[in-house]
Design goal:
The chain is α+β, with helices and mostly antiparallel strands. The chain has three domains: 36 residues, no CATH class; 60 residues, no CATH class; 78 residues, no CATH class. The protein contains two helices and 13 strands. Strands 1, 2, 3, 4, 5, 6, 7, 8, 9, 10, 11, 12 and 13 form a 13-stranded antiparallel sheet that branches. The longest helix has 21 residues. The chain is flat.
Length: 178
């Protein structure tokens, strides 16, 4: 700050009015650039396949993942997209088949699965679905055949299996209630 004070003194006491206005603008620009350079450091991270194609691209701010992370197939098509805040996965993550159709959709909150996690057949029909609360399975888990037939169903409560194919289980064991 001592240098800026000296420049201000010279501008106010020894320069003509026209030069004073230009010098004042220059000081404002220099001060702005100094402040910006002290802010968080943002860096783009690009990872490549061994053959050179981009496999993943995301930003890091002060060493933490921030914003959208995109993963790519070797041909450049999008393989997946995730969101990060302060190095934790948040929001909706989507993964794609090479055809561009959705393969899986997941929801995150504070870095933990929260909500549905659904895997789709390439036809677009659901194949597998789980529900999470704060990273724990909580709700139904279902598996379908490609023709839409329900193959398996179970229910979890905070990571504990409580029901299989409509039959409740005892809380203290995996035995089926009769």
């Amino acid at each position: 700050m001592l240098i800026i004070d000296q420049v201000n003194f010279i501008i106010q006491h020894r320069m003509n009015p026209l030069l004073k206005s230009y010098s004042t603008c220059l000081i404002v620009i220099i001060a702005s650039l100094s402040i910006q350079s002290c802010g968080p450091k943002q860096e783009e991270i690009v990872q490549n396949y061994p053959s050179g194609e981009v496999s993943r691209r995301h930003f890091v701010i002060d060493g933490k993942k921030e914003g959208k992370m995109t993963e790519f197939y070797k041909d450049g098509k999008i393989k997946g997209e995730r969101l990060f805040e302060n190095d934790m996965q948040v929001g909706k993550s989507v993964f794609y088949y090479p055809s561009g159709k959705i393969k899986e959709a997941q929801y995150f909150k504070d870095g933990k699965l929260n909500g549905g996690d659904t895997v789709f057949y390439e036809s677009g029909k659901p194949e597998f679905m789980k529900t999470f609360t704060d990273g724990l399975m909580d709700g139904y888990i279902r598996k379908w055949g490609e023709d839409g037939t329900l193959i398996y169903e179970a229910r979890y409560e905070m990571d504990s299996l409580v029901e299989v194919k409509g039959q409740l289980l005892y809380k203290d064991s995996t035995s089926v209630k009769h």
